[in-house]
Amino acid sequence: MPYLGGEEALRELRRALSNPHVQADRLRYRAAVLRVIRHMAQGADVSGLFPEMVKASAAADVVQKKLVSLYVRAQAPRQPQLALLAVNTLRKDCAHPSPAVRGLALRSMCGLRMPGIQEYLQQPLLSGLRDKASYVRRAAVLGCAKMLQLQGDSEVDGALVNELYSLLRDQDPIVVVNCLRALEEILKKEGGVVINKPIAHHLLNRMADLDQWGQSEVLTFLLRYKPRSEEELFDILNLLDGYLKSSSPSVVMAATKLFLVLAREYPHVQEDVLVRVKGPLLSACTSESRELCFTALCHVRQILGSLPGHFSSHYKKFFCSYSEPHYIKCQKMEVLCELVNDENVQQVLEELKGYCTDVSVELAQGAIFAIGNIARTYTEQCVGILTELLGLQQEHITSAVVQAFRDLVWLCPQCTDAVCRALPSCEDTIQDSEGKQALIWLLGAHGEKVPNAPYVLEDFVENVKSEMFPAVKMELLTALVRLFLSRPAECQDMLGRLLYYCIEEEMDMAVRDRGLFYYRLLQSGVEEVKRVLCSPKSDPSLGLLEDQTERSVNTWASEFNTLAPVYGRERWALVTAHQPAEPSYTCSPCTDSRNRDTESLISEGNKEVLKVHPDTSSLTLIPDVYLTAEQFEKTWLSLEMSCHLSLPWCGTVHPDTIQTALHVVHIHTIAMSKAGVQPWKAYLSAQDDTGCLFLTELLLEAADSEMQVSVKQSEAKPEALQTFVSALRTVMGTVAGLGS
Amino acid sequence: MIGGLFIYNHKGEVLISRVYRDDIGRNAVDAFRVNVIHARQQVRSPVTNIARTSFFHVKRSNIWLAAVTKQNVNAAMVFEFLYKMCDVMTAYFGKISEENIKNNFVLIYELLDEILDFGYPQNSETGALKTFITQQGIKSQFQTKEEQSQITSQVTGQIGWRREGIKYRRNELFLDVLESVNLLMSPQGQVLSAHVSGRVVMKSYLSGMPECKFGMNDKIVIEKQGKGTADETGKSELGSGKQSIAIDDCTFHQCVRLSKFDSERSISFIPPDGEFELMRYRTTKDIILPFRVIPLVREVGRTKLEVKVVIKSNFKPSLLAQKIEVRIPTPLNTSGVQVICMKGKAKYKASENAIVWKIKRMAGMKESQISAEIELLPTNDKKKWARPPISMNFEVPFAPSGLKVRYLKVFEPKLNYSDHDVIKWVRYIGRSGIYETRC
Question: What Pfam families does the record point to (chain B) (predicted)?
Fold first, then answer.
């Protein structure tokens, strides 16, 4: 094998490809092409061979065509002019007698990323949609979606959409599913593919022919359909019943979601469904495919949130096995926590106790916190186990136990005495910040029940200079002041020393300020200190509340089988936050209802037109209102956000152009960043004839992203707001068009 | 919808990268390597979110397969797709290893092209794929013209999993009942949890479009049939002990008519050509545990540990278990081990912190014992040894769930062969899944 991409190698390949003898021999020709691909995969620059390769694709050999298409797709973006050469051959291939070649040619053509390819694509795609081989139709249907993505924002061709809708009745199941996918992408702006009654019923009848991917996706599309009557609803549910027991877990989950969402007004049906999918879910939870098992466990947790005890009789299924990966063990522990009841609590606790001594620190601590959670209901047993664990004198175990105690004492005051008895002698083993904080808090808040509390805290005070964590020092200050209130004689001296250190020697400002705060508080007299510090030491109502909130199934049904349960609610909210979303109107119910009514495609199209040319009669902006920057800021801060949307934007900003353009429609600029600054911001104001103010912020994070627009309104007028927003959108759209 | 698919070796080098969507940038490949493959701590979750992009990964030996997407997809489907991808690759070139992937990269790109289009899963049945894929894996031969022309009839046919016009000179079928038995036992010999997950795998080499009917000793069916002649079956059941089994749940290949299963609980289907998984099931009741492990650990002072483990085989004496391996974990501070065993070979493997005891064969109703003395280095670490469970591997020639195949009938009305002409083979293999005894 020659060296990577040397000139020599390239020349040799070219010679081989253009040698007529090689071209005459099918196998040798194919081998030469394969060598080019190998070079490409190794990172060599083989772009020089483009003309020869295109020529090679003209050969009759299907294998060779496939190889060349791989090459062309990788190289086309780098050489758009030469790619045109390939287009010609590919177009010819679209009329090839073999369906495999036709399909391949269509796919390769749609995969070329070069400007202006659309005009060559249109004709072959349309004939592809009517091809007699389903293989070609499959490729063509998705090709339509690819083409529209290449085009970007241009108008959607209505004829094409109708053609795709009619292909939903195709014989081939994969064509049907591909049609749904393609329509969904093409009509994204209008809310995706419309599932009306005939389409829904048609899809339901075809379900059995689809493969697992198709079934899973069609079930997701059907979520959009709202049955007209109760009778129809139950017919659908009966028809789909078998899919709750499908062999593919993804189909089972998709079906479950559909059932839960459709039956949102029938809680007993929902419950029945969850009972029926218990088996399939449990078998997914114990399956050998770890990743699926993880996904299933996440969903089991979701279900348990609404139906605690749903899996209680199967608790043994959630015992961890030694060789399972860490993430499964953690999930299983969480599940175990939630399905504890009077009958199994003994066994579950025994099991969790076993995990507390696990080699993995994280797992061991997780198990301890799990026991701490169960302790809210079964306090005595759990406190016993936790106390026992302290005897092991392991750093990470003791730390976790003390933390669990702190949280527990707050929620279940009845266990305070038991906890206080266990506390002495913990201080030697705890090394980490979290553990120390918990211990110090406990000693401060319940110091009157721990005989040696002042002496333990004295040790901490003595070593405060070498203490690494500021949080521990702050906790120490609070605890010592609290303890001083209940046991003044023993604490006075060391409190003085600690305050002296914190104020005079401490470098961390937060600690110093806290020290000064307590110092001044103490100066104002003991009564005052007591008033400030002696708040209730527990809040049992919190614990009960947490246990009792069973969220109804409907709160999470729409999240089921998405990534939300997999990431967990909080993480998911974090991940999706600030994502440039579709414009969402917080105070405009009228737009919602209008969207709901649109069923047919024609009215969908009309609505788009309406938005672009707003009916100006409903909103008249006054030409000369001038807010000062201060007034603007004050009003801006006092108002709630009325509407947030993001506009497509590319290229740089020309502030002057924007300002002029906005001025034409009587929107005034209050302040604006200079051109090229990132992030770029602008503040705008406008007022209509009734005196309602519209304040707007434009924000462009980085070049070539989307422009974030936030609008605030002084009076809640949904119609006016909508017109204002569409006017703003039109202006910005025009400016963006000028820029590029 | 999948935005891209990457395959890495254990070092994090990209072997295959195929991007389907523009929203997945080049840096996604590196993001996964840096954040997951090269991460310090162990894998936290099979789904990772990096900069609003979700990475779903699956590991096969030391190869990482990652599917990437920016959308809110359903996780079960993506994982199932990755498994399917692994199956398909295995069917084409055997084990998924770095070398095989490098050798077959053109084939893999071709497969990725056919199975996924624009990020949407398309046809993924290995049998049906054969007609589209031109590259030969290690096994396949050159494609004939005839096969190419079959594409049209294949893809327009109503049955997606079988092509028409298949012919064999000898009509044969092989049925494998493959079970994996999982056990978690307490030191006192109490079963904490046990279940069998089984698969019925069928290899069919049958001509035409045969209609098959499969029967097994499912409790519900037997009881239903027994209703007519209740006395007789009652007697026979008493006579030969356990005859039928209770299946907790079972799932089937797409080809099985579910409606018929629901109404009559009969399993009838037109099988795909070649190998496929007919059914998957799970049982938890009345499991025959092929082995019992009885551990005895005694700590003699601080520096010595005495371990004695007895294994008992619990099945018919005429049957032979194979590939038996018992893994007895040892503490981290082990300095030396002396082992005495009556049968097989035992070795202390310091790198794995375990004594591995291997026995080639063992008949039923036998017993074997190993005893070991473990010397420990004195440490000042007060940490108690966690005592991981003793795990076991084996293979037995019966189904631990008790499942029996009662019949498999083949009907092909159009061609002239009948049920009697088909040569049928049935084989039962029970393997250990996670088979652990705590000590």
Answer: Adap_comp_sub, Clat_adaptor_s
Rounded to whole angstroms, how far apart are CA atoms A730 and A611? 9
ipTM greater than cut 0.90: no
Handedness of CA A645, A649, A652, A657 (dihedral sign): negative
Average pLDDT estimate for A705-718: 80
| pLDDT above 50: residue B111 | yes
Instruction: Give the C-alpha separation, A472 to A434, whole Å.
Output: 8
C-beta neighbour count of B288 within 10 angstroms: 16
Are B422 and B205 in contact by the 8 Å Cβ rule? The answer is no
What residues contact residue A735 under an 8 Å CB cut-off, 6+ apart?
A654, A657, A658, A661
Angle between helix A509-523 and A526-533 (nearest 10): 130
Instruction: Determine contact: A145 vs chain B, CB below 8 A.
Output: yes
pTM of the model: 0.66
Of A190, A135, A144, A188, the residue nearest A166 (C-alpha): A144
Q: Tell me: the pLDDT tens digits for B45-74? A: 899 988 889 999 999 888 999 999 998 888
Beta bridge partners of A212: none
Euclidean distance between CA atoms A468 and B205, whole angstroms:
73
Q: To which residue do tokens 């095989």 refer?
A: B100
Q: Is B139 annotated as a binding residue?
A: no
pLDDT in tens, A329-381: 999 998 998 888 888 899 999 999 988 888 888 889 999 999 998 988 888 88
Return d(Cα A128, Cα A123) in angstroms, integer.
8
* Mean pLDDT of the region B291-317: 90
Residues in B closer than 8 angstroms to A566, CB to CB, are 45, 47, 75
DSSP state of B34: I
A664-684 CB burial, b ≥16 within 10 A, e <16 = eebbbbbebbeeeeeebebbb
A227 alpha-carbon distance from chain centroid: 29
Read off the pLDDT of each residue in B12-18 and give the average, rounded to a whole number: 87
Least confident span in A479-493, A539-553, B229-243, B414-428? B229-243
Was B349 annotated as part of a binding site? yes
Dist CA A651 CA A739 (whole Å) = 7
Q: Pick B117's closest partner by Cβ from A142, A322, A394.
A: A142
Query: What single-letter amino acid sits at A514?
Result: R
CA within 13 Å, CB half, B288: 21
Is the dihedral angle over the CA atoms A52, A58, A64, A69 positive or is it negative?
Answer: positive
Return the closest-CA partner of residue B106 out of B190, B16, B13, B9: B16
- Which residues of B, range 326-355, sit inside 8 Å of A by Cβ? none
Is the CB of residue B31 less than 8 Å from the CB of residue B52?
Answer: no
Q: Which helix (H) or strand (E) holds A709?
A: strand A706-713
Distances (CA, A) of A611 to A641, A667, A727, A729, B211: 21, 18, 9, 9, 59
Please say if the pLDDT value at position B141 is more than 60: no
Cβ–Cβ gap B80/A99 under 8 Å: no
* Contact between A517 and A480 (Cβ < 8 Å): no
Q: What is the pLDDT of residues A4-63, one digit of tens each?
A: 556 777 888 888 888 888 888 888 888 888 888 877 776 777 888 888 888 888 887 788
Whether A598 shows a pLDDT value over 60: the answer reads: no
Pick the closest to residue B66 from B151, B8, B106, B26 (CA basis): B8
Q: Note whether A292 contacts B76, CB cutoff 8 Å.
A: yes
> What residues have CB less than 8 Å from A476, skipping those under 6 apart?
A440, A457, A460, A461, A464, A467, A498
CA distance linking residue B113 with residue B133, whole number of Å: 10
Residue A649 makes CB contacts below 8 A (sequence gap 6+) with A700, A704, A705, A706, A707, A732, A736
